[in-house]
Amino acid sequence: MKLDRDTVEHIAALARIGLSEEEIELMREQLSSILDHIASLQDVDTDDIPPTAQVIQLHNVMRDDVVQPSLPREAVLANAPATEDGYLKVNAVLDQS
Amino acid sequence: MTDLTRLTIAEARRLLDAREISATDLAEAHIQHIEQVDPAIHAFITPMFEQAREMATGADAMIERGEGTALTGIPVGLKDILCTTDAPTTAASKMLEHYRSPFDATVVERMRSQGAVFVGKLNTDEFAMGSSTENSAFFTTRNPWDTERVPGGSSGGSAAAVASGMALATLGSDTGGSIRQPAGFCGVVGLKPTYGRVSRWGLMAFASSLDQIGPFTRSVEDAALVLGAIAGHDPRDSTSVPVDVPNFRAALTGDIRGLKVGIASEFRDIEGMEPGVAAACEAAYAELERLGAELVPISLPFSKYAMPTYYITAPAEASANLARFDGVKYGLSIDGGNVIDSYLRTRGEGFGLEVKRRIMLGTYALASGYYDAYYVKAQKVRTLIKRDFDRAFEDVDVIVAPTSPTVAFRIGERTDDPIQMYLSDIFTIPANMAGLPGIAIPCGFSDGMPVSLQMIGRAFGEADILRAAHAYESATSWPTMPDAITPSGTAR
Known about the structure:
The complex is a heterodimer.
Chain A: H1 5-14, H2 21-38, H3 73-77, E1 83-84, E2 87-88
Antiparallel strand pairs in A: 1-2
Chain B: H1 9-17, H2 23-41, E1 44-47, H3 49-64, E2 75-79, H4 106-113, E3 117-122, H5 156-163, E4 169-174, H6 180-186, E5 189-192, E6 212-217, H7 220-230, E7 260-264, H8 275-290, E8 294-298, H9 306-321, H10 339-350, H11 353-366, H12 372-392, E9 398-402, H13 418-423, H14 429-434, E10 438-446, E11 449-457, H15 462-475
Parallel strand pairs in B: 2-3, 2-4, 7-8, 7-9
Antiparallel strand pairs in B: 1-3, 4-6, 5-6, 5-10, 9-11, 10-11
């Protein structure tokens, strides 16, 4: 299966990864060959086989809703690229006009 | 004079408890050895010498008060994907080069409270994605048996540190073989516990339905000791299973008479298997039989689909897990002038090529129009892979296989061909897909490099594989460390 350039660019946009021209071409080739390898799965008859997303038999693990202290704000914000007044600072997401 | 950097944990424990050495002596010997040897091996991203000295002082006080446990005063290294408050946690990524976790991983917290001495954070493939440490954003770790070869991966730093005497034990993580494969390449013991046995809280997530933390050691007994110290339910990890933690060390009876050992035809002859690896493993199976185990031929017909299933499942989960690296909360941030361009630039420049490749693959498998054909299909095949094991474990107690089809390959040999790189995990991936425990132990040499035997057990059957591995180890005496480390060429 050969991926085309548009598909690679579409996937990169979905994944929010900026790729250089060379990387787009490399990804097109390498993802194509990995998908060829993966294609053998289509040989397996999986009609009536339920999917397994996880292997342990735990379902809906619940805990009591108890108030506990959070991590200290300063410790958490110490890793943030930009902060202001104790908040994370981000680019505007709403049109300000 | 005993070389303190060549001890097992059990031997060090006796010396510490008899007050023949102090935790400080042990820490200083390791610090000095790391300073001598690591320039040739490159296992450490961040050494923690100051912290180690303080922790050793604390450990000596614990021993003095009679509060010592199995790991008190034992020098331990941590894969740099386990969060620590007192050293950076980088995941070997430019994305997290300066990241300092505000909390300790549960396994780190448990080891800390038991008085273990952390000597440093160890190299890995970026975000644990790889089989050689060549995907580390910082440097490639060298195999202590031959520094021209890779140590395996992703937990290559953890394996190389134990094989070169820079720690008595280390922790790594295993998503598709990332503990067992490097343990095999470096000739040490590596244990991937059952999915759910060890809390993953504070382990940076790669593929959440597969990841599991486990130890590297120089003996099976040591692996049992470390597992006992880190295992058990943790309310902070909802996938950690509330089951009792047995005394794993007590399982090491040395007696495997009547143990049923399954050998799958699918793991016996595959294309690309090195003759020296096959020969060493066949000899190991014969040794198990000599020790009284019964060899039982079994079949795992769907195991050949484990790798394609893995390369859909793991990247799909990774693409979701790594969405958190957005340049806002922590890590690298490159301003692109607006929200979307900031994401594109931060993630484009912060992630290395293999991480980008896997995020892309996973995003593709989950994308509208491909989801059923790829992701759902893989989850269905996963059911068949698990059923194979369920059926086999009705007849056998343990399944044996080579850990990897070849010995450690040369640095640079497989970097241009992702599929060749992925093939080194062909025997380890099936256990992850089924959530089963697996241990890698040394079983000989081929081409001067260690060969490794893998034993896979039932879910929560670590005691079975530890017992079998210990019996084999006791009957043989493969070295877990080269005699000396030399900067280039063969070490032995």
